[in-house]
Amino acid sequence: MNRIKIRYNIFMDNKIGVYQILNKVNGKKYIGSSSRCIHKRWQEHLFLLRNNKHHSQYLQNAWNKHGESSFMFEIIEETNIDLCIDREQYYMDLYKSIDRNCGYNIAPTAGSNLGFKHSQRTKDKMSEMQQGKNNNRYGTKHSSSTIQKMSYAQKGDKNHSFGKTRPENIKKKISNSLMGIKRSEETTQRMSNVKKGKNNPMYGKKQSVEHLIKRIKKLCKKIIRSDGKEFNSIKEAAVYMNCKYQSISQSLRKGYRCHGYTFNYKQGVKDD
Known about the structure:
The chain is an alpha+beta fold. It has ten helices and seven strands. The chain is elongated and about 85 Å long.
């Protein structure tokens, strides 16, 4: 087998800096940098390319097509550790190695995958690799103690959203993204079954007369939609909006959007 040509002897020194893998057939380049020994970094590239596992599919395809002997590895610039990424970016821009007509780099930002997008075909493959028996959690269940630990780790100030309030523009985006989504009958039935019988948090409990009176009063209070439209009750608003009573109630209590609108009591009485 014809082995790749390496310009001058880099095996004697622990050089750091920027390097290129040059295709001698068409002049295309892959630009990289190493803050440790460039020779070791090159050995990693070589191993991946020879085993058809390189992260740059463009470079891998060219390697498979033209053969190892058609490539040259060389150091472009020696530099210190702090400047490696900056100088790599400089040469990537200089040689336009992100351009498919000029090079084999897959991400426009040195030292980062920022700006890189997987193709739909790759996304489908990645998804398929995580489904069914291919998933490392397939057939396994968390123990009760593990579930409790996971729950505890997300409660109170341990939760990453604790004390944070979403900006209105984010709330609107979330609301808009959910508009028009319809659950299947199977999902709706499953959600219903979860709240039936002993699974319902109100199972076996009776509401006091005072609480029932309070609920009735709220049902009869007029509410106003964010666009100014008025309704005589939550039920009337729910029927008009073709949504659930709970959706209007949550909007009144927590400010959530329902079909892009928020609701308030006309007299300014809050739902508690």
